[in-house]
Amino acid sequence: MTNLVAALKERFSGTEGLEEANDVARHGCSGGVSGFIYTTELNEFFNEHESDIEDHLHELDLELSHLVKDQSDWTFQEVMQNSVWICVESFCQNLVESQDVL
To answer: Which terminal residue of the chain, N or C, has fewer Cβ atoms less than 10 Å from its own Cβ?
Structure first.
């Protein structure tokens, strides 16, 4: 188990965590998910799990063009935010599917 998966398992543990994971699986992170909203939170999470995040994005066959809205005008902050959100959403979808919650 990677540190990323361990951190997300801890974050989405228990009944409330599973309910929130269900919301994330259905609606994504863009509406706001506690711990993954503010720039400082996203940067800290990205920096702590950068290697695992990069590995997961590679497993999903995602490239830079998939992480930004406009390839000619993007920021590294946008890349970090979307990278974290994709990993959180992917984790939540897998968690919910394994629990048959949807």
So the answer is: N
